[in-house]
Amino acid sequence: MVKQIVHDPMFLAQKSEKASKEDLNTVKDLLDTLEANRLGCVGMAANMIGVKKRIIAFDNGGKYSVMLNPEIIKKSGEYETEEGCLSLSGMRKTKRFQFITVRYQNEKFETKTEGFFGWTAQIIQHEIDHCGGILI
User: Fold this and answer.
1) pTM for this entry
2) Where are the strands (E) in 1-136, listed by range?
């Protein structure tokens, strides 16, 4: 189901809780909402649709991917950039890393470790920040 986008910075600044199997409906809602906003959005965290769980969805080279309980375990190649956010207005400066390694669970709750670089790495970092209550 397509959900409303949350714009309340007080809500968005709260840390998300660990996702569990009971949160799999949120995965579908997150993907539906990301698809509905595809023209202005390349990634989304569950708190952007009002659910404080560590779940992200993002464009991964033309197809959507989902991570539950993601954490960046390695990063390198720091750079400065500007980003926008569907939940917030305007562009903001931030620091990102060109290469990241992420440990996460897939929708079957299997633990995976995967490396990302460039644009996809930047999207993932933005969404993981959302899970931590970090607003750019």
Assistant:
1) 0.96
2) 43-45, 55-59, 64-85, 88-105, 111-117
The active-site residue out of 17, 22, 78, 127 is: 127
Residues 6+ apart with CB under 8 A from 25: none
Q: Does residue 41 surpass a pLDDT of 90?
A: yes
Beta bridge partners of 45: 56
Residue 127 bears catalytic tag: yes
Q: Where in the chain are the domains?
A: 9-131
Integer Cα distance of 11 and 135 in angstroms: 11
Q: Does domain 9-131 have CATH number 2.40.50.460?
A: no
Phi, then psi, of 52 in degrees rounded to 5: -85, 65
